[in-house]
Design a protein that fits this description.
This protein is mainly alpha-helical and about 210 residues long. It has one domain (about 1-15, about 40-195). It has 9 helices and no strands. The chain has helices at about 1-15, 20-30, 35-45, 50-65, 70-105, 110-115, 135-150, 155-170, 175-195. The longest helix is centred in the middle third of the chain and has 32 residues, at about 70-105. The radius of gyration is 18 Å and the shape is elongated. It starts with a helix and ends in a 9-residue tail after the last helix.
Length: about 210
């Protein structure tokens, strides 16, 4: 199921390329300063660095608990899910950055504020790094891992992930297609890492 969700998200992102620019201009014109500030206050919860640091801290805590032989079953789960997240983020980010480099897309805000829009494949230029969204990829990996830990709350995890991912488009930090394709890559990367590298730690419906 998760594999199909990832592919559907990527397909939707490819279709969104046809309306991306017009939609970004509409959002830019209609999201007021107050809404922009509110969105900006939560969008960083999808940043990779924060979650990577949390995973590393979790591994350190787990090592300490294992040393003192406290909660062995929970410690094993904490270690495996932390490693699964790091592996998912690593795999997904590698794919994402290859695409960023190959596609080379300007961010929507550059279009609104400087009149710069377009693609420059193999640009080796940080200004051309909009496609796909790393924030969307990260928070979808987080949602997949949290669903493994607390599977009955999966609508909450994916709902939060969708909200945080879409803030990237609402802030015109990314086009809608950037967000959808980044999310799709995150879902697929996390699923494959769990099923192939950590068998037994993912729900059967994955």
């Amino acid at each position: 199921m998760l594999l199909w969700a990832g592919f559907v998200s990527i397909l939707a992102g490819l279709l969104a390329l046809t309306i991306d620019r017009a939609l970004a201009h509409f959002i830019y014109d209609h999201v007021n300063a107050r809404a922009h500030k509110a969105l900006d206050s939560i969008t960083h919860y999808a940043k990779a660095g924060h979650w990577l640091a949390a995973a590393v801290i979790a591994l350190i805590v787990a090592a300490g608990l294992r040393h003192f032989q406290v909660y062995p079953q929970q410690v094993t789960q904490l270690i495996n899910y932390s490693l699964a997240f790091i592996a998912s983020l690593t795999l997904g980010s590698a794919i994402l950055h290859v695409i960023k480099l190959a596609i080379g897309r300007r961010r929507p805000r550059d279009d609104m504020e400087m009149g710069l829009y377009g693609f420059m494949p193999l640009a080796f230029n940080s200004d051309y790094n909009s496609f796909p969204s790393g924030h969307a990829l990260t928070i979808c990996c987080v949602a997949v891992i949290f669903t493994c830990v607390w599977p009955w709350l999966w609508p909450l995890w994916f709902g939060i992930a969708a909200l945080l991912a879409v803030t990237r488009a609402l802030l015109t930090a990314h086009f809608l297609s950037d967000v959808l394709i980044g999310a799709g890559i995150g879902l697929i990367a996390a699923r494959e890492v769990l099923l192939l590298g950590f068998p037994g730690f993912a729900p059967a419906w994955f």
